[in-house]
């Protein structure tokens, strides 16, 4: 057994003992180390209170002690190894250092299935999260964003739930990209059951990650606490659809506290599934509509999204003085040259030359000694784009 193995075994046992995000346990780990913490629980050494676990109540410590006696970490490590997985602990080369930003709420360790290196992937990862009961708009948007991120070499991280999460994972996989599923249960538990096939694909092509031991089942509280892992593992979190009370907003606010980017995709103002996103956009979130805008925020300096412009109209291509003459023509009735020149602020000869240019492009027509717009000022249908 290597010098690190006692710590690994103790941490594997402690994933049975403490609930995710338990800061009391985090403080005990800092004070005693994993092996020392577990030994205190199993041997009964130290009284719960100011000596062994200062600030931690007796009921919590009693619960830890009962669960510690039932933990068999060797069995868990063997099971996850047979599934092609592993158990990561702080200090491992594959441990994502950004999880350390969670301080005492940092996971005791991570159970991982899949062939990729979690640390490397986490450095270039974006969370795409949202409502379980999403609309078709939300599912389409999540899949499109994930596919665009995957095509740009980014890892898509989500929670494998129905709705937006599942669409994001499928969008990444469908583009041949990388995706990470962070579970609120054991990595051997297909939850939700309807995503068993999806989770199998992710374990084969990506990574399935959880802080609970094999066989552990999810609870409502574990879903909420799982979201801090999604936020910490990634460079930023994108919320596609979310109601006011949504676990996705928990992820977004955890990301904000950790100094990560928070992004939201706008939706119809009449949709309750967009209400939570819009609330984020009024505060800490940045509005994004495609993968390029996400990468502009989370990527390297200079990875700018393309400038958004409306359609280019034929009159947009006119030279400024030519456009000025066009604007000088009245909307409905013909006008003499002198009047047009005065309104355009130019010499009549120069104005006349521009009118002939506009005539050749189909913008104006001549009526005896006057000029007027074609089709009462609408854009010509067969305009040759150009200008001087």
Detailed description of the structure:
By secondary structure, the protein is an alpha/beta fold. The chain folds into 3 domains: 1-71; 101-298, 3-Layer(aba) Sandwich (Rossmann fold), CATH 3.40.50.450; 314-377, Winged helix-like DNA-binding domain superfamily/Winged helix DNA-binding domain (Arc Repressor Mutant, subunit A, Orthogonal Bundle), CATH 1.10.10. The chain is 44% helix and 12% strand. The protein contains 15 helices and 12 strands. The strands form 2 sheets. The protein has a 9-stranded mixed beta sheet, sandwiched between helices. It has a 3-stranded antiparallel beta sheet with strand order 10-12-11. α1 (5-17) crosses α2 (23-43) and α13 (320-328) crosses α14 (337-344). The radius of gyration is 31 Å and the shape is elongated.
Properties at a glance:
388 residues, alpha/beta, Rossmann fold, Arc Repressor Mutant, subunit A, 9-stranded mixed beta sheet, 3-stranded antiparallel beta sheet, 15 helices, 12 strands, elongated, disordered C terminus
Gyration radius, to the nearest Å? Answer: 31 Å
Which architecture of the largest domain per CATH? Answer: 3-Layer(aba) Sandwich
Oligomer: single chain
Q: How do the helices and strands follow one another from N- to C-terminus?
A: HHHHEEHEHEHEHEHEHEHEHHEHHEE
Overall geometry comes to: elongated
Strand content: 5-15%
- Summed up, the helix count is 15
């Amino acid at each position: 057994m290597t010098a690190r193995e006692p710590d690994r075994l103790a941490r594997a046992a402690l994933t049975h003992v403490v609930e995710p995000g338990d800061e009391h346990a985090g403080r005990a780990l800092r004070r005693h180390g994993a092996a020392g913490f577990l030994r205190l629980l199993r041997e009964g050494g130290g009284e719960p209170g100011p000596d062994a676990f200062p600030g931690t109540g007796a009921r919590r410590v009693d619960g830890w002690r009962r669960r510690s006696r039932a933990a068999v970490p060797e069995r868990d490590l063997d099971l996850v190894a047979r599934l092609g997985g592993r158990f990561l602990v702080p200090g491992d080369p594959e441990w994502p250092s950004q999880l350390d930003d969670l301080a005492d709420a940092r996971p005791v360790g991570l159970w991982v299935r899949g062939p990729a290196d979690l640390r490397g992937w986490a450095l270039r990862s974006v969370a795409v999260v949202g409502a379980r009961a999403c609309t078709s708009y939300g599912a389409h948007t999540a899949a499109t964003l994930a596919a665009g991120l995957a095509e740009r070499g980014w890892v898509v991280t989500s929670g494998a739930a129905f709705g937006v999460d599942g669409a994001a994972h499928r969008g990444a996989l469908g583009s041949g990209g990388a995706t990470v599923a962070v579970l609120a249960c054991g990595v051997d538990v297909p939850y939700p059951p309807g995503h068993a096939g999806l989770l199998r694909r992710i374990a084969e092509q990506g990574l399935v990650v959880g802080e609970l031991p094999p066989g552990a089942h999810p609870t409502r509280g574990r879903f909420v606490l799982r979201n801090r892992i999604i936020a910490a593992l990634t460079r930023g979190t994108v919320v596609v659809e979310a109601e006011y009370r949504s676990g996705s907003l928990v992820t977004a606010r955890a990301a904000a506290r950790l100094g990560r980017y928070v992004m939201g995709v706008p939706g119809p103002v009449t949709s309750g599934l967009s209400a939570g996103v819009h609330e984020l956009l009024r505060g800490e979130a940045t509005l994004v509509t495609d993968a390029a805008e996400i990468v502009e925020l989370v990527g390297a300096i200079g990875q700018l999204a393309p400038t958004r412009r409306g359609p280019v109209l034929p009159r947009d291509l006119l030279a400024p003085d030519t456009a000025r003459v066009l604007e000088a023509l009245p909307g409905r009735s013909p006008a003499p040259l002198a009047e047009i020149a005065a309104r355009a602020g130019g010499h009549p000869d120069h104005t006349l030359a521009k009118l002939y240019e506009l005539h050749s492009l189909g913008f104006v027509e001549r009526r005896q000694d006057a000029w007027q717009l074609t089709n009462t000022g609408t854009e010509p249908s067969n305009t040759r784009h150009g200008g001087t």
